[in-house]
Amino acid sequence: MKEFMKALNAIAEEKKIDKSIVVEAMEQAMAAAYKKNEGLTNVMAKVDDVTGDIRIYSYKTVVETVENPDLEISLEDASKEVEGIELGDTIKDKELPLKDFGRVAAQTAKQIVVQRVKEAEKQSISGEFQDKDGELMVGTLSREDQKNYFVDLGRASGILPKDQIIPGEKLVMGSSVKVYVSKLELGPKGPFIMLSRSHYGFVKRLLEIEVPELNDGTVMLYSVARDAGSRTKIAVYTEYNNVDPIGAVIGEKGRRIAAVLKELNGEKIDVILYDKDPVKFITNALSPAKDIKVTIKDENKKEALAVVGDNNLSLAIGKRGQNVKLASRLTHYKIEVKSQSAVNEENAEEVEASEK
Questions:
Q1: N-terminal to C-terminal alpha carbon distance within the chain
Q2: Are 224 and 204 in contact (CB under 8 A)?
Q3: Measured over all CA atoms, what is the biggest interatomic distance in the chain, rounded to whole angstroms?
Q4: Per-residue confidence at 353, pLDDT binned at 50, 70, 90?
Q5: pLDDT of 263 higher than 70
Q6: Measured distance CA(171)–CA(263) in Å, rounded
Q7: pTM greater than the 0.85 cutoff
Q8: Facing residues of 339 across strands?
Q9: Which of 2, 57, 141, 144 is the most exposed, having the fewest neighbouring CB atoms within 10 Å of its CB?
């Protein structure tokens, strides 16, 4: 019997589930096999989780009025044996002799144990991953198909769609890879884990690893806007007068930000100072452009106009409009950018029209 318990302990350890679950599964399996072999219905099995001893019992159900004495016992009689027993409870009747099970009964027992252990393992895995949504994980690239990479995360596998990697990067099968959990669903078959390296949260979590001040609350991250593979803008601030939030993120000699950039395949990061004043915040967000005058056109609709010097117009807008798009997402304002000469021309036309 000691060997039997060693086997149960090994199963529990291998599957990372509680031993009591394996013991319970074995009890259910033994009872089912005995029922099948002996043609009985009221059978329970008990396994001693220390010695491994197995005992088989018949049981009776506690009822108000006994109709089948082989299966039922009155509440009055049951109360004499077990204090506090209630209607609907079961009570051991007598111990039954252990017998060798037939092939069919043994197969039934095996199926029950395998199924119960599988279910428990899935629940255990789901419990392990239930708090991973929105988190960074490290896995191993195990295989790929036309649309996806599959990442081994230990006890579960995640899906990394090929349109969710950083543009231009090459991933090698068998290599270690950092991934962001963009979607997590816990179902009866275990966790469904969708991964990304292009999600803005990927950059956010990488920064939290490199910048302790983001974790302890000294520096706070207000927002992130990302064009994966090209540029990311992050807005940071602090409530401490003696702390430089931008400097904290960049690090001494740029070491902190460099560690993040190394993971991003050449992507650039603009660290922006957040300001409660939307005019100042939008001005900062349009960096590296200078000479900017911001006007809030509609606070409710979150619309703003940024007028820039002619020599800063291309910087403010950015290649294919990237800079202003990222600034808009970062500040949550729809930003219209105009050159100073264009505004002057519009004003002149308005004056001319009013004089006619």
A1: 107
A2: yes
A3: 113
A4: low
A5: yes
A6: 12
A7: no
A8: 308
A9: 2
Cα–Cα distances (Å) from 260 to 205, 250, 267, 282, 354, in that order, read 10, 10, 10, 25, 55
Task: Name the fold adopted by 203-274.
Answer: GMP Synthetase; Chain A, domain 3 (3.30.300)
- Both tokens of 290, joined, read 């200078």
If one counts every other C-beta atom within 10 angstroms of the C-beta of residue 356, the result is: 4
Q: Are the C-beta atoms of 51 and 5 separated by less than 8 Å?
A: yes
The dihedral through the CA atoms of 162, 168, 173, 175 has a sign that is negative
- Tell me where in the chain the CATH 2.40.50.140 domain(s) lie: 136-196
d(CA 245, CA 224): 15
Single-letter amino acid code for the residue at 142: S
Asked: is 2-129 a CATH 3.40.50.450 domain? The reply is no
Q: How far apart are CA 65 and CA 42, in angstroms?
A: 18
Q: Look at domain 277-356 and name its CATH class.
A: alpha beta
Instruction: For residue 187, give both structure tokens.
Output: 């179902």
Amino acid at 207: L
Question: To the nearest whole number, what is the mean pLDDT of the chain?
Answer: 88
79: Cα within 13 Å, side-chain hemisphere:
8
Spatial distance between the Cα atoms of 274 and 262, rounded to a whole number of angstroms: 25
Q: Residue 267 corresponds to which tokens in the numbers above?
A: 């992507």
Give CA–CA dist 151/146, Å, rounded: 15
**Cis peptide bond N-terminal to 288, omega within 30:** yes
Half-sphere exposure of 278 (CA within 13 A, CB side): 18
Identity of residue 301: K
SS3 for 133-191 is: CCCEEEEEEEEECCCEEEEECCCCEEEEEHHHCCCCCCCCCCCEEEEEEEEEEEECCEE
Intervals of CATH 3.30.300.20 along the chain: 203-274, 277-356
Residues of the chain within CATH 3.30.1480.10 domain(s) are 2-129
CATH class for the domain made up of 136-196: mainly beta
How does pLDDT run across 59-75, given as a tens digit for each residue?
A: 899 998 888 888 889 99
Tell me how far apart the alpha carbons of residues 341 and 334 are, in angstroms, rounded to a whole number: 21
Find where tokens 């990927």 sit.
202
CA distance 225 to 322: 11
